[in-house]
Amino acid sequence: MTTRAPILIRAIREDDLDAVLQVQAACYPPAMQEPRAVVLSRLRAAGDTTLVALHGNAVCAYVFAYRSDAGAVTPLDAPFEVKGAGDTLYIHDLSVAPTAAGLGIARELVARLRSLAAGAKLAQCALVSVQDSKAFWEGLGFAERACAGDAARLALASYPSVAIYMCSELSGETQR
User: What span, in angstroms and rounded, lies between the C-alpha atoms of 13 and 77?
Assistant: First the structure.
């Protein structure tokens, strides 16, 4: 019987940046890979809601999220606009390296974020679904919604191909 190395999820650190960028490169086409400076600024802006997963002591997944307003969308390659009084945890990017696919890491990262959001008494989580991931997000309770206003629609259009704004209400969830 083979034992699988445990998955450790923790807050992201600046020394994880190179590994995060490697996961990003393995998961996205060049047009969707965001620059190092932007990723670093996001880590610094929202370090309490950005996580990495380690498998065998190596970063194999990450998620960047931050407090925002319902209906708002962060454009591709733009810094986060963290809203201290926002009502939504916006999940900007969740990526799992192909070598770690099928281990349940994405679901665990989302569960952690939902717990953080519920603990902060936020109303919902929101995201932009890309790369035909709509069915995955629907399986986690997200549904397509309209984004809020022209600025959000323009931000949504900054993503290549089909990009869909989705939300998941947190009503009834309790802090884990």
Answer: 20
User: In which residue are the tokens 């192909």 written?
Assistant: 98
Instruction: Taking each helix axis as running N to C, give the angle between helix 17-27 and helix 36-45, from 0 to 180 degrees, rounded to the nearest 10.
Output: 120
Reported pTM: 0.91
Query: What percent of the chain is helix, strand and coil (3-state, nearest 5)?
Result: 35, 25, 40
> Are residues 124 and 167 in contact, defined by beta-carbon separation less than 8 angstroms?
yes
- Is residue 137 in a domain? yes
**d(C-alpha 62, C-alpha 94), whole Å:** 6
pLDDT, tens digit, 9 for 90 and up, residues 132-167: 999 999 999 999 999 989 999 999 999 987 899 999
Which structural domain range is residue 125 located in? 7-169
